[in-house]
Amino acid sequence: MLKTRILTAIALLPLVLAALFWLPHSGWVLFCALVCGLAAWEWSRLCALKGAATLLLPLLVVAAIVALAPGRIPVYDAPWWPLVLAGALFWLLVAPAWLRWRWPLAQTLARGLPIGLLLLLAAGLALVALRGAVGPLGVLAVFAIAWVADTAAYFAGKAFGRHKLAPAISPGKTWEGVAGAALGVSIYALVLAHLAGRSWWAMLLAGWLLLAVSIIGDLIESLFKRQAGLKDSSNLLPGHGGVLDRIDSLIALLPLALPVIYWLPH
After folding, report:
1. Residues forming beta bridges with residue 237, ordered by sequence position
2. Residues 6+ positions from 190 with CB-CB distance below 8 Å
3. Of 80, 62, 75, whose CA–CA distance to 117 is shortest?
4. How far is CA 262 from CA 75, 202, 206, 237, 258, in A?
5. What are the angstrom distances between the C-alpha of 160 and each of 118, 155, 166, 208?
6. Inter-axis angle of helices 175-196 and 200-228, to 10 degrees?
7. The pTM is what?
8. Residue among 186, 165, 160, 185 at smallest CA distance from 175
9. Which residues are CB-neighbours of 234 under 8 A, at least 6 positions away?
10. Cβ atoms of residues 112 and 43 within 8 Å
């Protein structure tokens, strides 16, 4: 399994980097739409849809991202800006309550599909806009928040993990892992503040905020998989599960990262 995970990562990483650094704007839009479309297909499975019905949400997500894709106009004047803010507010306000009361996602038309459309559309549009706002290196810097958090949480949890974070949702996660992630992200944020010439305290607060929603995004997807009786969102990525399994933290982090970057003082 480890060998499969490594081979899949080796194959995917150059593809993602090539798309991020070399594709023109239209190509980057299509790439983001494709990734979100695959995640939408997996979301449909979490909603217990079967057969051709699983194609409805992916088609809506892809079409909406392509139609609304951020161009060169200022972010605050863009017609898609309220969608990104709505996605950010979901992760800040609704998702914590969802984890607390563990509402079922499988009420497909009434709940699951509209929420999936909002969250994946918000993440996809934010990802397109981020490359225009901060460039490919800036996008990687945002991605790295989730990567640093995951790596630090893994090693801290392995070494010190005793107290479960959410045993009924994701038994492997611990509060010690969260502490390790917070330490790792704090160090990363301070280094980034120095390199980017930003306020250290603002970057630190931003890092903590984005860390919190990335953890919530991870837990929410774990909850939905548990409710659906699935171990992985799909088998699209050998050794890694599905696309949602790999980007659950980013789906939560990206819609908040865009307004946070505009908020950070220079």
Report:
1. 241
2. 200, 203, 204
3. 62
4. 9, 12, 11, 34, 7
5. 37, 8, 16, 21
6. 140
7. 0.93
8. 165
9. 41, 42, 45, 241, 242, 243, 244
10. yes
Structure tokens at 219: 């837990």
Look at residue 133 in the predicted model and tell me its pLDDT. Answer: 87
Single-letter amino acid, residue 12: L
With CA atoms as reference, report the closest residue to 123 among 88, 96, 92. Answer: 88
Tens of each residue's pLDDT in the chain, 266 residues = 556 767 777 888 899 999 999 999 999 999 999 999 999 999 998 988 888 889 999 999 999 999 998 765 556 567 888 999 999 999 999 999 999 999 887 654 556 899 999 999 999 999 999 998 889 999 999 999 999 999 999 999 999 999 999 999 999 999 999 999 999 999 999 999 999 888 899 999 999 999 999 999 999 999 999 988 888 999 888 877 899 999 999 999 999 999 998 887 65
Q: Which residue type does 213 have?
A: V
Give the residue extent of every domain in the chain: 2-70+78-263
CA of 79: how far to CAs of 17, 68, 71, 75, 84, in Å?
28, 8, 11, 9, 10
- φ, ψ for residue 170, nearest 5 deg: -140, 90
- How far is it, in rounded angstroms, from Cα 166 to Cα 93? 18
Q: Please list the alpha-helical segments (H only) found in 197-242.
A: 200-228
